[in-house]
Amino acid sequence: MRTAARIAPAAQRMTPPPAPVRRAVRADPRWPHIVAALQDLRDAHRHAVRIVDADCACGTLLIEVARHARAMGFTAIEGRGIDGSPAMIGRARAAAARLHDPAIGLAFDMTDMRGALVQEAEAPADLLLWHGGRDADATGMAAVLAAAAIRVIADGDSAP
Hints:
By secondary structure, the protein is of the alpha/beta class. The chain contains eight helices and five strands.
């Protein structure tokens, strides 16, 4: 029984990110929109969320969003990061491996962006984080993004 008492719940075992990382992520122009979208899901009594981060780089934003969702009370958080850089995906995978919360499942894939998002349309995510901003129309990605998730949060969004 002593051993069980010493084991902290999984949410308490997560190592918090360094303060500069947390500040940088929360300074991202998408952060208030992300928090508002997560709150909308919680207000709808959702306990699970699926998030896709297109052009995720080293995964910092997706990891922090997953941590924030967990702190908000989500009990199942599934995240997928997509990027074309092997180095960035390697860093993202290493960072995700440091999470020790069974409620958070993260996968980072090095793949073609358009192809991956077309696959996402088969079972759209709750949230898609898009770094491309409003150029989605110009690049022909608008329809692909809209099909890949219920809610797309892009760099150029104005109001949560």
